[in-house]
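ARCHIVE RECORD
Type: protein–small molecule complex
Small molecule: NDP
Source of inputs: curated submission
Record status: active
Notes field left blank by submitter.
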Amino acid sequence: MADLLSIINPATETLLQELPVDDSAAVAAKYNRARGAQPEWAALSLGDRIAPILRFRDLLIERVDTLAALLTSETGKPVTQARSEILALPGRIDFFVENAERVLSPHRVYAEPAGAALGTGTLEEVISQEPLGVIANISAWNYPYFVGGNVFIPALMMGNAVLYKPSEFATLTGGAIADLLHEAGIPQDIFMPVVGSGLTGAALLEQPIDGVFFTGSYATGQKIAVAAAPKLIRTQLELGGKDPAYVCPDANVAVAAAGLADGAFYNNGQSCCAVERIYVHTDVYDEFLEAFMATVKGFKLGDPTDPDTYLGPVSRKPQLDVLADQVADAIAKGATRRGGGERLDRSGWYFAPTVLTEVNHTMTVMQEETFGPVIGIQRVDSDEEAVALMQDTPYGLTAAVYGTERERAVGILRQLKTGSAYWNCCDRVSPRLPWSGRGHSGLGATLSLAGISTFLQPRAWHLRAG
Ligand code: NDP
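STRUCTURE (tokenized, with ligand):
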């Protein structure tokens, strides 16, 4: 009998469902089915592959209420944020659809003029694109529609078969995504969910797959890279961050405070690009802190099924200890706690939104990924000090600068090694721009044209007329 995966509601701590886990044999069987089906899928016209994806897009919109309720039940994501995530995926799908042909079409890069060659005819050089084959998509729980969709939509469109391993904390949503894709017309064997925990993910990597596209933590990302290395397959890792923001002395403080509070606490801080460290120039520090605290106090915490709730429970119980440890470490080293700081005395995995000031870089809260509703705010005396502190991290996902002078902000952002740079905004993703990390934040890019071509491999054609 198969092991069972228990799905728990983080807001109520009640058991939602128990699902049979795919063991190694089940994973291998799914792989074989995908391998067998992929050539026929790749042989379809691009239009025939796009048609079911457009139906999937429409179904997302049609079923948003049910899908959002399911996502909220297993992750605790406030339902309004769950709806926003689901309703934003169609925009990403539109981008992929509009650009698929441009990326996939073969193109002639050279044609020798008639009669110029010494041989019997003219030479043409053409580049065509081929799908990778069968890929593994190992996904995180915090934005299953976004981080999954960034991979499986373009991967399917380009002719790959996808073995989709949702996080064990978003497995029901993973199943719902698979059902919707199949209902929309994606063949059963071309997109298959693989159910289980990290062990199932590891079993998936033992199969002779052609690529692995992973979203998750740096710690697991390293294991994925090690497992994939001997296979010499395309390996893409979208990992965590310790994303900094700096408020310059000339910033519009109200805009900065509102934007950064949302950037730090949206989805309970459980975003890869959540603002995790804030540096504020001393000239505007007091004004900023007051406005920031006022915004945080205005966030409604509670039942995630209530449309007015902004902060729900954290999605994973062990994270409560990580948050409590970071707060305790900071306070022991001299930080001031401005509200929050502990688990709430109620059922569900609720942690009070916490702002720490008088922080410094000896504290884990300013060094390690927090991934929850806790933020450190540090006073700085100059742009140079802010840059040095922002650079003090092995991560490199995003960084933000708030201020009125574009050149000053861009000059600061240029000195930081991050995949995304924000001026007067933060925690933002666009389908038109590549999503990538530097250092411990990962390898490769999703979204943009790069996020389509990453599911292809080029072939060089040297064609001489005989
Ligand atoms: P984890 O690294 O814990 O897990 C990610 C996925 O890998 C899950 O599906 C997990 O399964 C699976 N997994 C775990 N161990 C293994 C293994 N040995 N072999 C194969 N698969 C394995 O991350 P979380 O799901 O907790 O996600 C949070 C992390 O993701 C944060 O660090 C966040 O910053 C990052 N993230 C990065 C994004 C980006 O775009 N850069 C976007 C979103 C999140 P299971 O859950 O079942 O254990």
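CURATOR ANNOTATION: Residues 138-143, 147, 165, 167-169, 197-198, 201-202, 205, 215-217, 220, 223-224, 238-241, 272, 369, 371, 397, 435, 437, 442 surround NDP (CB under 6 Å).
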